[in-house]
Amino acid sequence: MDSELSFWALAVTQTLLFVAAAPLLAGWVQRVKCHLQNRAAPAVWQPYRDLAKLLGKQMVIAHNASWLFRATPYIVFGAMLLACTVVPLIVVHVPTAAIADVIVLVGFFSLARFFTALAGLDIGTAFGGMGASREMMVAALAEPAMLMVVFTFSMTAHTTNLSVATAYILNQGLLLRPSFLFALLALAMVAVAEASRIPVDNPATHLELTMLHEAMILEYGGRHLALIEWASQIKLMIYAVLLINFTFPWGIASEPTMTALATGLVVVTAKLMLIGVVLVVWETVMAKMRLFRVPQFLGFAFMLAVLGMLTHVMLEGGN
Amino acid sequence: MDFANLGLFNQAIILFAALALLTSFLMLAQARMLPLIFTFAWQGFLLATVTVLVAIVTGHSDLYVSALLTFALKVIVIPWLLYRLSVRLEMQYNAEEIAHPSLLLIAGVVLVIFSYFVAKSIINLSGLATRNIIAVSIAIELLGMLLMCVRKSAVAQVIGFMSMESGIFFAASVSAYGMPLIVELGVAFDILVASILFGVFFFHLRDSFGSLDVGQYNHLSEANETDTPDDRATVPATGGHA
Q1: What is the mean pLDDT of chain B?
Q2: I need a labelling partner for A214 at 20 to 30 A (CA). Which of A104, A202, A233, B176 fits?
Q3: Closest-approach residue (CA) in chain A for B135
Q4: Among candidates B8, B12, B17 on the partner chain, residue whose Cβ is nearest the Cβ of A315
């Protein structure tokens, strides 16, 4: 009973850590990217400063905005908050993972996306509608690929519970599973599309016509914008942590002792920094693709995920 | 079969075979000529690696010769010949228009499922360590055939043909630990001769038709008239604008 209680306390702490560390990951990515492109780099704390500035600003809301427009930032942030409760970050055993599995996690993402698209349409500007339709197109292609990736992993681990799946991968040791390799590649491609990174979307663009995600939230300001930006930083971090947990979870704490937790924290930080560097290199060598090339990109991700599932059945004997 | 109980070499065999299957899909999706040739070379490299690994695991020393043949032909000689040809035909930077890219990939997945279905009865009978890879080798053959069917460029079709041949070679080495050496040498020599003949054919095709796009060969044209297929293709477009 006591240990169960401590696991709940750990889950809450872990969620708070998740939310607090997400801007740090974004700041790290930004900093490394600046270094790589020979630009003067901002401090890694810059996203916190931006968020603090936005939180202190007055909001300007259009007259024709409905309750949907005001509620969306809170719904989006709430969905991301709930999503990070079920992802193991520094400790494997998360009691909340038994309540909501990885399919619910995908559901949280689509809930957030649904309301962002509605808010983009709500205000009635051209860019909002354009951004909403583009985001929905990308989502409609990325979600099946994401689900196929999830099914590939859960066919091996025999569960959709993220805690149990991570523990299974942790216990089986390092195996050269081709299905995991394909699913990893597909998950990385989906993550790039869903977290609005190059080559699907450019998060730093100032050109409205090329925007996907940003075009929907052009009308937001102040506190609302802070929440939405923070939510998208959390989303990037969730995808990075999912990549780590599914493929290379070693180092994560399996019991709630102080040393194990400290090791877990250090190891996950190192892995997230590494993923950040990989993301930056990828974004630097790639150019943003045309919008109509995106279906081909995500179609390839879907094909990879299906291939992962097929190789699991064909080559790994379905076990 | 439990994957976790396999040795490292057996796991590596399966991983590299799966990667070879992936290169078949990459070739289907690759529209540009030079990356297509390089992907073909990578496929040859992966298949040679799998053959070496099978030789190490099973102790069949004949397979080393087969791997060496695959490496020499599929990784060095044929890609180099194709590269030289595409440079001399000035088409190394050409990008082909692929008609329905996503549909093509789905068709590829269907072919993989079909080859698994076909190979399943062999897998149940066989006791070989590499029996699961038979489905992959059949899939590589079928995907090569799909590449031949959908591409219009003659060079891409030749790559599809060579990829089919790689699949057959691979099937022999994983289902029966290689063909008799004399057969393998004969086939390898045939392939070498075929690739040189294809090169000669490309030049003849370009001289007689003015293009390596086999889609254009359906157009009837008379040698002495100026009405070439290219002109005919542009006439309705300009008419539409007017």
Answers
A1: 84
A2: A104
A3: A314
A4: B17
User: CB under 8 Å to A86, separation ≥6 — which residues?
Assistant: A94, A96, A97, A99, A100, A101, A102, A104, A105, A162
Mutual orientation of helices A222-247 and A102-122 as an angle, nearest 10°? 150
Give the integer Cα–Cα distance in Å for A187 and A184. Answer: 5
For residues B195 and B228, membership in a common domain is answered with: no
Single out the residue of A204, A253, A288 nearest to residue A29, CA to CA: A204
Sort residue A251 into left (φ over 0), alpha (ψ -120 to 50) or beta: left
Q: Does B185 lie in the same domain as B157?
A: yes
Q: Do B1 and A300 touch (CB under 8 A)?
A: no
Q: How confident is the model at residue B26 (pLDDT cuts 50, 70, 90)?
A: very high
Angle subtended at Cα B194 by Cα B188 and Cα B196, rounded to the nearest 5 degrees: 110
* Cβ proximity of A214 and A130 under 8 Å: no
Domain membership flag for residue A319: no
Radius of gyration over alpha carbons of chain A, in Å?
19
Total count of domains within chain B: 2
Out of A238-247, B141-150, B214-223, least confident range: B214-223
Q: What value does the CA radius of gyration of chain B take, rounded to a whole number of Å?
A: 20
Asked whether the beta carbons of residue A319 and residue B113 sit closer than 8 angstroms, the reply is: no
* pLDDT tens, residue by residue, B109-137: 999 999 999 988 888 787 777 788 899 99
- Residue B230 shares a structural domain with residue B133: no
Average the pLDDT over A196-209 and give the result.
81
Residue A318: per-residue pLDDT = 60
Per-residue pLDDT, B222:
59
Query: Does B200 have pLDDT greater than 90?
Result: no
Helices A222-247 & A178-194 angle (0-180, nearest 10): 170
Comparing CB atoms, the residue among A176, A177, A303 nearest residue B105 is A303
Domains in chain A: how many in total? 1
With respect to residue A244, please indicate whether it lies within any of the assigned structural domains: yes
Query: Does the distance separating the beta carbons of B21 and A175 come in below 8 Å?
Result: no
Q: Indicate whether B88 and B171 sit together in one domain.
A: yes
Place of tokens 């076990």: A319
For residues B139 and B24, the answer to whether their CB atoms sit within 8 Å is yes
Specify whether B180 is located in the same domain as B226.
no
Residue A210 placed within a domain: yes
Do both B112 and B227 map to the same domain?
no
* pLDDT surpasses 50 at B240: no
Domain containing residue A240: 2-314
Do B221 and B163 reside in the same domain of the chain?
Answer: no
Question: Which residues, in sequence order, are CB contacts of B10 under 8 Å at separation 6+?
Answer: B57, B129
Same domain (yes/no): B170, B222: no
The tokens describing A67, both together, are 């309750």
Using a cut of 0.80, tell me whether the model's pTM lies above it. yes
Kindly state the average pLDDT of the residues A43-55. Answer: 94
Residue B230: the pLDDT is: 52
Per cent of chain B over pLDDT 70 is 90
